[in-house]
Amino acid sequence: MTPYSIEPRAPRRHTRGYILVEALVAMTLLSAGMIAIHGGVRQTLFIRGQARDYTQARFLLENVIAELDLQPEHVMGSKSGSFGGEYSRFGWKWTISRIDLPTPPIPPDVPPEDIKKLNKSYLAKVRATVTWTRSGHRFEETAETLLAPERLFIPQEERERPPAWVY
Fold first, then answer.
1. pTM
2. For residue 102, what are the domain limits?
3. What's CA 139's distance to the chain center, in Å?
4. Band of residue 136 on the pLDDT scale cut at 50, 70, 90
5. 24 in a domain, yes or no?
6. Is 79 part of a structural domain of the chain?
């Protein structure tokens, strides 16, 4: 063989367009993967924000109840408003109502001065709600607590009337 000899070539195969199809399939798979990753990141950010909102709402709810708890006496009714500053997305509402309780029979050996202490047939119920919106959805967190009957102002004519369960 001579140094300049030409060896026979292998027959050509039809490979035109193969690289284009391979590139399209690769781009389709990469796009589907990127869409899935984007959806996961988006959902993670939404859940993280929602968790932060619930934490802030719980803090604000405890703040509303603490403000009510510091007052020496309450009147039945409700009030609502919104928080200011960085919590301006949050609103609050509280309601104070009376819960009538059945009174147990008083033993005959109880002194008359202690009967008034035992004859409290109601409690004060405080229901506080914090509401907010995130991404067009409305959320709320609610808490309830009971207060001693001495902390609820009842007009004199209602105090002398027997509780509703007696009728």
1. 0.64
2. 18-166
3. 6
4. confident
5. yes
6. yes
